[in-house]
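Hey everyone, long-time lurker, first post.

I ran two proteins through the pipeline my lab uses and got sequence/structure pairs for each. Pasting them in order. The first:
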Amino acid sequence: MSAQQLSDLAEQRLRIGRTDGGQVALVNAALVDRGVTSTATTGAVTLSWKPYAADARYTIVRGETPIATTKPGQATFKDTTATAGTSHQYRIVPELKGDTSTARTWGLTVAVPKVNRGETETAAVQRTATTQAANAKAAASTTLTWTTFIPQKYTTQPIPKACKYSGSKYVYGGDNRGFDWESSRYRTSASAVINWKSRKVEGYTSVSATHVYKKSNKKQVAKKTASGKGMKVKKLGAGSGYAAIRMVTHATNPFCGGVAKVKGAIDGALTFHITRGGWEIRSGNHRRMPNHEIYIYNGGRVTYVYKNKYANAACLVGAALCDLKNLTGYYGKYK
């Protein structure tokens, strides 16, 4: 490899290594400071990470499909179904239990080598490494994320008989966090990843499970996840250096029937105009429960677009009890 190729590999924290069995492999150490690495051979991808607890379990997601859940304490996973000659997007998602203050969700892209005719395995790994490094350097991307979260560890349901579990005997689980883009705890999350070279926008959405506990001893009595059908990320258009994105965040409390048959919900929508230099919310609003945060990851730095603390816990029970916050007109530049 040339000096420039070696420099590109070092910049992207990629290197050529070997597995314990001696097979040549492409090692991605971009997240090594977080305790996460990937090792890709022509037949498999191995992920390893530092768990947040000794008995922690993780779900491995490839693309948008969960492919495995680890045993308690397991901190490595080997994907033998990875497709050679392609790049896979992986997420390592913690199954939260107990003290989750140090839990994190990790995501990484893994290029899987493929041996072409007349090529050695070592040459195939080197070619894949240099291609991935060059692409990563050229294909700059920007990620827009909108999350909602309940800041308390537990919260009560304030309207009698509006939900299946109400009154003084029960509490609902919160996310026990403040405004923190690194936190993996949320009620809803929507992200748009913009690739400036291809002008492609990839959308990801997620809704976390709702937990109900006995107030007296905090023993869990029920768990249910609201439908994520109302969550949307859509590209409205894109050109040289800009993208227009529509985001909708929507999830009801799955244990609540609402007030006067009108369900409460985490609810909001916005139209976002984003460029390589800054952003503007062209239109949008949201119900003022729970906390909302919008931020952009660009060029290795995070810039907060918007933060809002919740107004009324009743918002999650009945929409009629919850006012709207206008998002139109927020704009700025990256840090």
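...and the second, right after it:
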Amino acid sequence: MTRAAVFDVDGTLVDTNYLHAVSWWEAFRQAGHTVEMSAVHRALGRPGPDLVAELLGPDRDTRRDGPLSDAHSILYATYFERLAAFRRVPELLRALADLGWQVVLATSATGTELAALRRAINADDVIAHTASADDVSEGKPAPEPVRLAREAVGAPAERTVFVGDSVWDMRAAVSDGAVPVAVLCGGVPRADLVQAGARTVYRDPAQLLAELPASPFMTVR
């Protein structure tokens, strides 16, 4: 039976969380909103409309949600040519593929943003599928992104390990029934990730690769 290694991308495989936080902070500032960057960081990992709703609340002028998201996208796009993967990311994905895992990306990125992220990851030869925001009707913490990612390669939830960096990632994996594994490189505290359901927490992809023989990937049969 197929086993799926599903990975979130931003903050998990590619070092982008703080770039997103700065871009959202500036987009809010340009629209006349004062939003602390720490609050933006905590909301990362959710689709843009959900992030705006969480940070501005239900009493906002929802007609401005679209322009806010557009402003963030324009600001963030200035970093595309400089995006960098975390250490040992290509080696981790290739090691899992060599062990028979189907490697799948689950991300809210689409279009040119997704292309930039894949260039940074530099492991297209072993990525079996990518589930993007275009494929789902509801983003994390709903289970749909994880479910669609694993179903794309024919893997059941109990044979899927989902690796992410946010509370929303862990909640989505738990809701789907996949094995939730967290990394700290996105900047979320270990305690928050564990409380959200992370079975194991690693510093970054490099530590996960180094400890792969003792990781949850070795317990899924």
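Reply from user beta_strand_b:
Welcome! Quick read of the second one: The chain has ten helices and six strands. The longest helix spans residues 17-30.
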